[in-house]
Each structure stands twice: as C-alpha cells, then as structure tokens.
Amino acid sequence: MTSCGGLLLALCLAALTGTTAVAAAYERTERNCSASPPYLPSTAVNTTLRLQELRVQMLLQNISAYIIPGTDSHLSEYIAPRDARMAFMTGFTGSAGTAVVTQTKATLWTDSRYWVQAERQMDCNWDLEIDVSVRSVAEWLISEVPPGGYIGFDPFLFSLKTQGDYSVFLESTNRSLMSVPVNLVDQVWTDRPPIPPGNLTRLPDRVINRSWEMKVEHIRNQIRENPYEPTALLLSALDETAWLFNLRGNDIPYNPFFYSYTLLTMDEIWLFLHTERVTEELKVYLNAASCSGPLCVQLKSYDSVREHLQTYVDQPGVKVWIGTEYTNYALYEIITPEEKLMTSTYSPVLTTKAVKDETEQRILRDAHVRDAVAVVQLLMWLEKAVPEGKETELTAAAYVNKCRSKQKDSRGPSFETISASGPNAALAHYSPSEETSRRLTVDEMYLVDSGGQYLDGTTDITRTVHWGTPTAMQKEAFTRVLMGNIEISRTIFPSGTRGVNMEMLGRRALWEVGLNYGHGTGHGVGNFFGVHEWPVGFQSNNIPFRIGMFTSIEPGYYKENDFGIRIEDVVVIKPAKTKYGHNYLTFETVSLVPYDRKLIDTSLLSSEQLQWLNNYYETIRKLLGAELDNQGLHEEKKWMLKHTEAFMKSGSSESVCSSSLTLIALAVTLLHNII
Amino acid sequence: MTSCGGLLLALCLAALTGTTAVAAAYERTERNCSASPPYLPSTAVNTTLRLQELRVQMLLQNISAYIIPGTDSHLSEYIAPRDARMAFMTGFTGSAGTAVVTQTKATLWTDSRYWVQAERQMDCNWDLEIDVSVRSVAEWLISEVPPGGYIGFDPFLFSLKTQGDYSVFLESTNRSLMSVPVNLVDQVWTDRPPIPPGNLTRLPDRVINRSWEMKVEHIRNQIRENPYEPTALLLSALDETAWLFNLRGNDIPYNPFFYSYTLLTMDEIWLFLHTERVTEELKVYLNAASCSGPLCVQLKSYDSVREHLQTYVDQPGVKVWIGTEYTNYALYEIITPEEKLMTSTYSPVLTTKAVKDETEQRILRDAHVRDAVAVVQLLMWLEKAVPEGKETELTAAAYVNKCRSKQKDSRGPSFETISASGPNAALAHYSPSEETSRRLTVDEMYLVDSGGQYLDGTTDITRTVHWGTPTAMQKEAFTRVLMGNIEISRTIFPSGTRGVNMEMLGRRALWEVGLNYGHGTGHGVGNFFGVHEWPVGFQSNNIPFRIGMFTSIEPGYYKENDFGIRIEDVVVIKPAKTKYGHNYLTFETVSLVPYDRKLIDTSLLSSEQLQWLNNYYETIRKLLGAELDNQGLHEEKKWMLKHTEAFMKSGSSESVCSSSLTLIALAVTLLHNII
C-alpha cells in the first residue's frame, strides 16, 4: 500500500501535487452555500450546535482560535472512532485534514483527494481551504486572530514538529500558541464512543524469539550505553509498547494496538494503559501482581501518564529519552528543564524493532506464502468471473478478504483493500464504495492493493492486471513499472545505504520516457503490526538498510481518468556475495504472486532483468507450489504454474543469433548433402 | 576534484572513514614526545612562546579554553596565509583541523589524511586527537574545563552550525561558549601576513550578460517577493559579492575572490571591503563617487561590517535575510531580536548564481574546449616521455599547469594539481611534494586531477591512465568507474530532482562487485569562481538540478597502497526530449578529453553505455578537433583522433551475430558456387 498517511502526509502530498486527480468519481451532490437558501446534500452534517458549544469552551479558556487535528495522542496512522474529533466537529470523515474554529469562522484544510467529499459532508458553517501546509493554516490564523491573541491546541494531538512549525510562523507575529491539555471537542462530544471493551492478548510462544524480559534488558542496555546518560525511556507510539511486551490489542482499525505509554527506567517499568483490560493471566505474565525488582511491570492508569511523568521528572538527576517523531507535545512539554530531556528522531525500540530476528524473519516469510495463496485465488477467480460481467470492485475486494480469512492465523485485513478498475485506479488511495464501485470488464485495467494481518506477520501486495487486450501504452507503462521494481530488487549495495538514495531506480525506466509517479516507493512492514512500519523504507527520513529489515517496493504509474498501475512486493534485506567486497546487501522478494504476463513487453527488459524475473518465478513455483499442494489447491497450482513459465527474450539479439545459427546449421547440412 | 574541504568536511570525512589510507608515503620522521629527551624532527615548529602569549590573552578575557578553527571569516574553502591561524599556533599546515588551547594543554584535531603530517610539524606542546567530530572536541572540553567555565571562540570563524553544535554539547553540562570578537591569535601573531596589495578588477563585458545593476535589481525582486518580508540581504561568502558586482580579486589562493561583505536593501547598497584597493575607474563603475539613489554602491571599510550592521538592525521595522550556510556567527549574533532575522540555507545570490545564463553557459563550455587542449597535451607528452624514465608526479603537474597557462584567458590553476602515481593515487587529496613525488613508470597507474581558472570559466577534470599493461582488476575497476560516470551522465530525470537521489548510479557498477569510493560524486563549478561551487552537486545539502547548472561527475575507486582511479567530467544540465513527458532533464558532458582505451573492458558495458561513449567521442572530435585545428596543433589532433575511435562491443552477442552472418554469407556463397 502506498504510504501517504500519518506523519509523512506533508511530504507525501508535496510529491503528489500535480499528479493526483480530484475524486471525480463522486456524484455531484456537493453543498452550495452561495445559493439562497444554501443547498445542503443529505450527506452533510449539521454542526451548528456543536460549534456553538465549542465556542463557549473556547471563551472559558480565553483563546481566540482552536486547532483540531485529525490524529490521536500517539500520532497513529489509523485512529479509533473515539479519536475522530475532526470528523465529529466538521462532518468530514476523510483521513487527512486540520480544522480551526474561531468565534466567527470555522475552516477545514484537506488535500485534493478529499475536496469533493468535504463539500458533500460539511454544512455551510465550514469553509474549505485547499493548501494544507502549516504555513497556510498559520497565515489564516494571523489574518483571523488579533495580535496578542491566543491560539489553543490539544498538546496530545500535536507532534513536536507540528508545534514547532506553528510556533515559527505565529510567534514572530505576536500571536501565541497555547497548550490546552483538556481536549475541548471532548467537552462537547456527548456521545463520544467508549474505549473498546476487548482485553489485551499476549502473542503465543511459537511466534516469539525474545521474551519481553529479554527485550527490556536489551533496551536497557541501549539506555545504559548512551553517551548522554539518560535514566529513562518514554515510549509513546502504540507499536512500541506492543512490541516491548509482546502484547496486542484491538483499539485501532487494521492495527492490533492498544492505548498505552511506557516509561522504562533501569529498575522500574511503568506501563500506562486501561488497567481494567488486563486479565489476571496477563498480570502474572507481566509480573505485575506483586511487583518488586527491575523485571516487573507496574500497571498505571492510561490517563495518569502526564502526572506520573511529572513526578519522575521532578526527581534530581533524571534524564528522559524520547523519540521526537512519535512523542506528543503534551509529554514533551513537561520534560523540563532542558537538561532532563534527551532526544533522538526515533526511539531505540523503533530502530531495534526494525531489524527482525531469525524467528521473526521466518514467520514473516511464512505469512507471505499463505498470503500469496489468497491473492492467487482472487486472480484466478477474476480471470473466469470478469468476462461473465457480474463482478465489481467491491465484490473483488470482498473475495480477497474472504480468501485471506481462510488462511491459518488470519486476523483480518491490514488496511482497507484498494480494488480499483479503469480511472478509479488512477486516484491515490482510492477504496471502492457503493457509489464509486465500477463493474470489472475485459476492457479496463484492474489494480488490487491489499494485505492481511496474521499472527505471524503483516502483508501488503499490489498486482495490476488486464483481462482483455491492453493498449501499447499500458503495456509499456506496466513493463517500465516492473523494470523499476526489478531494478531496486536486484541491486547490490553496501550495508547502511539509505533507501532514499536508491529509490530512483524504481523510477528510472519511467523517467526515460517522461513518466513518473507521485508517491513513495516503499515502507517497512512488521510482524502482526502496522502495514506502514516506519522508520524502514525509501523516504528521506528512513533509517539505513540492515540485514533482517523488511520493506515494500512499489513503483507505479497513473494516467488521470484512464488507468493506474502499481506493482508492490515485500522484500527482506539479506547479505549479497560480491567478487571483491564484504558487507554488501541485496533484497529478496517474499511476496510470491506472478505478474500479468500479458502486460510484460520482454523486449524492453535487459537480460539481467529477465534473469531476475525467471529466478523469482522459480522461487514462486517452489515455495508457493509446496503450500498449494499442502492446502490441496490443485486448480490454483495449475494456474500458478501456467503464470510462472520462464520468459524468453523476444526480438532480442539472442534470438536473432539463434536463428542465424539455425541458418548456418541448415546451410552446412545442405552443403553436406550436396558435396 | 573531489570535494572534501570547507564546509562539507565533516560530512565528507564520515564518508571517507575506513577507506582513506594514512599518508604512508611520508618518511618516518615524526616527533617522539615519550622519548627522553623528546625527539623533534627538523620540520617541527617551536610553539612554546606563542602559546605562552596566547594564554596571557586568555587570562585577560577570563576564558578557560580557546577554540582555533582552520577557516576564515567567510567560511572559505581555501584561506589566505593571513588567515592560517591554526597553522601559526600549532605548526601544522594541513587544510583541515581544529585547535584548542587551555592554560595547561594544547590539542589539535585532524583527520587521518593528516596524522603523519601533524606528527612531523607539531612540537610536544601539542597533543593530537583523531576523532574530528564536534562531539569529540566538546567531550575534551568538558573534561578539561571546570563547570561554570567559559570557552572562548572568535565568532567570525564559526558558522551558525558550528556554534550550534558546540552549544548543544556544552550548555547542558554548565560550560558556556563565549564569543570573543577580537581574535586572540592575531594579538600574538606579530608577523601576520598583510592584506594582499592587488587592486580589484571588473570582468570585461564580453564575459557578462547581466550588469551588476541588473543583478542587484533581480536580487531585490527576490527580497521584495519573499513572504517573510525581509528589508535587507546580507552577503558573507566571498563569491556572493564577487558575483553580484562582476568583480574579481586575488586574496585567496586559487579563488579569484577579495575580502568583502555586502548589505543590500531596497534603496541602498553597502559594500564592505578594503576601500583603498578600489581604483577611481572602479568607483565610477560602481557609481560610488557621488552616491545617490538605489543603484549606487556605498563603499565601507571591511572592518566596520559589524558596526554598520548593528546600526542597520537598530532601526525599527527592519529584517535582515541571511543564508545560514555561509554567514559567520559574528554577524548572525548581532541580528536581534529574532523578528529582525530571516534565514534560508543559501542566500538568493547563491541559488541564482547556480543557474548559468546563456552567455555564462556558452563561455563556460568554451573554456572547457581550451582546457581540453592542455590536458590532451599532457597525456600525449606523458605517453612519449614516461617510458624514457625521467618524469615524475611533480614534472607532470608542472607540465599541465604550463600547458593551461598558454591557453587564452588563462588565470592559473583552479586548485593544486593532484598528480599521483601508483599508491599515491590511493590517498585522498594527495598532491605531490619533493619528498613524496614518485617517478612515473609504465608499471603503475597514474591519476591527474587538475583544473584551470580562465576569465570565462573554471575547469576541473580527472583522467586515469596506464602506460604499460594493467592488471585484470585495474581494468575491471576502471571500467566500472567509467560505467558509473556514464550512468549518471546519460540518465533522464524530472526537473527538480536532487543529485543526492541519483548519485548511487555512479557507484552501482562498483557495488555489484563489492567496490566503492569514499568521497562525494560531484560539485558545481563556476564562471571564473571557486572550483567547488556549492550548492550545486550530488551532496545531501545540494539544491535540485535545473537547466543551466554545471556540476562535476567524479566516481572513483582506490586500492590502498596500490593504485587509485577517478574519472571526472564537468557536465551541464539541459532539457531532455522524452516520449510522453515534459520538463525532463539530462546531462551533457562539456569536458572533452578521451579516456584511456587500454583500461576499458567493453564487454562489461551495456549497449546503451557503449552508444553514449561513442556519441561522446564524436563530440570530442567535433569540438576539440576544431579547436586543435585553430591552434595549429596537428600532432595533438592526430593523437585525439586515435584515442576517440569508435568502440565495437567485444565478445558480445552482436559480434557473435555478425560473425554468424559472415558464416552464413560464406555458406550461401559456397552453395551458390556449387549449385
């Protein structure tokens, strides 16, 4: 799945500028606020009352404006319904945006993907702004808030960077940001969804190599060895705590996380969570029952994290280590004075988690074998069903979700399936709805980007197919996207090379003919974690590649109002043998689904690319073949074998040569016969 | 020339770690301070007295330690003798280092290139530290300076970043940095060299498209249009002022610069320089005689810049724009409060200068044609002279310098010629001296990296040759370095792509067999400016490529104690035609000297690479051929033609094919004859 959510949104949107289409597939039932009376579609939400109530709260706090971001306290990529404050206030349910309310105005910023949706969901209390940069919001604030005025924000919903960016723009103009630790939207949101009732679960031993006690010791060693001499580590991202304790939950859609923070010192472990959800069995597992010694977990109430952190910071001689990318401003701001704070971009948990141990590598590969079965089942079924004319983007998405659910250890999809036909596939981050779902036909290309959560791993794969006759341009574009995927996959590089320094290999074959794509080229994936597992990947803020990391590789090409192509595989970083050097690495693809042969123009491929492709298909035959046998899926096996036959280079010098040699043989035979 | 000097030193050194060799070519005449009495070679400098005097100055300022960097007030890559304060204090004359003095200790930090040299030049007053990071210096300071102590520095010699880095490390431990605007070394340096006497010169009209008045208006427009509403621009880098006024000087070795700052407002121009060096003619040129209106230049004394800047800043409503990369801390620190400061990484002069106008492009290409004549003369002469056994690295360097000096508009070398044979070529930034110069033989590879200053342009080119029989490994390494050069040169990319995102193309063929190099891949060059003209190039802090920029491309490979290879060309960025897209760019090579054919294994080259090479040789034949004709250099022309013959792919399928086709023809002929 392409990565344009969460923290990287601004970066990603910049890259998309000019290439993303407006969501033209929506029916035109947008609001018209300049009509008299204003026209509001049935999908618009009446926000008059809630805005009135919020403005009363703002007066009580003495703030002139209030900023409402679309994230949660852990700066998560997906948020739970109870954290959808921006959606509650505005009516707009898109996954990216910022809302700002003053006593007289209410404005939403969102990007081009969502403009039509916003016009359908918002009432006329709200204005829509289309430049989503912090600068744009800040300039609006400067024009609306008088000098000396205060602009309030919930510090739990701001990253350090967001706070810093606003601050840079606002402070020099004599408007002040004011941290308001009680969320004002929550004060007026009377039917806010509760915390999900589900208990936390621990991972079974078969998917674990390192116990939580081992992980705690490992992280403590990193704290101990740090030259800045921190005394504690604060974990804020939900996957950090989940990883450390080998626990999972169900609070966030698609991500098996639970609301939590951890404060880890050399002799204490404080786990902040909704303690009522911890079973007796788990308390035993965490040595939480009668806690004494450095390897027992003290359970604290989730809402007490600021208070407890304050108590810790107030002690003399302490220094708290935080990763700046995922810590919210509410916790950061109480770590004062400066010498009690130590920062790195990512916490040592995130950088440690990025490198999978041998067990994690093995089971993550295994999950991809089973996942390939589900995708092959989808593709095989579509090949037969589409010509009959009854299938749609939605039925295809449902089918692949069902296939995955039948695989061992399945825990549902890892994100909302992108099932997109024809022009819909040219829209970034499109997922079908009843309104937009197209019927699948042999005349359009089809893109399916989907993934599963399994107890042993998270998967993410994209295939693009055509069931009829592709145009020359479609074939060329597909082949060049594939060349990009192969060029990255087969490259050999020194350990420690950054993804951002090689991602142009994914674009180069496209650039050659003036094509490109407007999203990132790949992101880390985890073991039953988020489908975008930063900081691994090809973005500029990702960490260097090391053996045992997993990342997606996903170049694409999108022709507005026509078609979209993306080819995405997950790969593992492994050692490469070289003639002269040591410590070189390469990728091995662990996704195991063949590409649409019909769309590959082998005459464009170099002999190295062709050889890579044939080797990859050999691997699919071996690994997926065995799994299909195990599952008794004979028809699927046959389909897979047919689609993984070795390619011969067409129209190449080799074939010219071999025909020349045939001619020679013929000539010699003739000679022989004659003489 | 590879770029490891100046501001990028820290970055570059990090890249070199592990690959740079100690300068083993020096004879072992290092000091031995643990002997009794200590042994000091004749090359060591007695620093006892000057240290005593400096320590008195430090006591007067109440500082516990004093930091002495190796740069000048303009953070220049090359410094004038009068700015060699670190060398004066330590005895060590290497181009990179930092010295720190306390009342009891004196320590130098320099990198591995210079360790032996430092041990030869320093007396036993000085310790040598080998970790050159700011952190290392800071940790030493923390161990030597008591809490509450002050650490002095000359703010003119610190960049904002250097000051910030020290500050981060020191402030949290209760040691304070203290800006001491009068340089303490200068107080004890009684025979400090004076300002060079030469006058400034203006560029002739034939090498100029934009008058200084046009440039001033252009930059003022950028100030006017900046949304942060600056009222003035402060220029600190020497090439900024030189560019703005189309002036040149002779204060800095190899760089035609003069000591200067500029403060440009909407209606005034203040030029800070040694006013006595401005001739009457130049005063007229600058409208400086009776200055009134926005397009006359007010000449101010160089040493009054802080004072005048203070006066300007004290006015209400002003805001000064600075580029943070080249402004020293002494000027930065007086632009207070914060709302009077506006920063960008580079000043608009540097980013404007990076894109050459049509005249600049034309004359810079022209300079490269004449420069190629000199390099061809060197290579041709060496081919004959080396087997006779009398030539050395030094005589070769002298020869190419002499050849360049005979070319039209020559203004000397653009840096110290790197003329390196055998193992010397494996040393980063080696230049020959009487002690180290090797005799050139047919048994060793030879690398020559040299460039010229011409009134119309600055050049920089590296060729590596072998006059005997190269080993298979040398040939493979050379070919792979060449493949890197070609792969970057021929790539097509969208306008605005950054060099850092494609520089791996220069390494990829090497990586494939486990080889690499430890320096950057290229840097901008200018029109009669510095040979490293940032911010253009392939480093991570370089700006995106645009049409009209010039950069070097210079991959290499270095085998310690054995040989070194580098192939460097200067290229211009120009539009590329593509099948589907617009606004795509590519490179065109403007250096025009053939590569050593003997070292190219064409069987490793792809057909695209071979075609690029043959096209390039066609260009050399056309452009250089005409110039050689013009200059009546017939022997050189013959030599050039011989070395630019088209390559045929050896051992490739094409040649197999063509021989098969010959066989077929033969067979058919035979058949024809028989039948």
UniProtKB/TrEMBL annotation, chains A, B:
InterPro entries: Creatin/AminoP/Spt16_N, Creatinase/aminopeptidase-like, Creatinase_N, Pept_M24, Pept_M24B, Peptidase_M24_C, X-Pro_aminopeptidase_P. SUPFAM superfamilies: Creatinase/aminopeptidase (SSF55920), Creatinase/prolidase N-terminal domain (SSF53092). Residues 363-574 form the Peptidase M24 domain. One of its GO terms (cellular component) is plasma membrane. GO terms for biological process: proteolysis. Keywords: Aminopeptidase, Cell membrane, Glycoprotein, GPI-anchor, Hydrolase, Lipoprotein, Membrane, Metal-binding, Protease, Signal, Zinc. It is found in: Cell membrane. Residues 50-161 form the Creatinase N-terminal domain. Its cofactor is Zn(2+). Residues 1-24 form the signal peptide. Its EC number is 3.4.11.9. It catalyses: Release of any N-terminal amino acid, including proline, that is linked to proline, even from a dipeptide or tripeptide. Residues 583-646 form the Peptidase M24 C-terminal domain. It is a lipid-anchor; GPI-anchor. One of its GO terms (molecular function) is metalloaminopeptidase activity. Coiled coil: none annotated. PANTHER family: XAA-PRO AMINOPEPTIDASE 1, XAA-PRO AMINOPEPTIDASE 2. Belongs to the peptidase M24B family. Homotrimer. Membrane-bound metalloprotease which catalyzes the removal of a penultimate prolyl residue from the N-termini of peptides, such as Arg-Pro-Pro. May play a role in the metabolism of the vasodilator bradykinin. This is Xaa-Pro aminopeptidase 2.
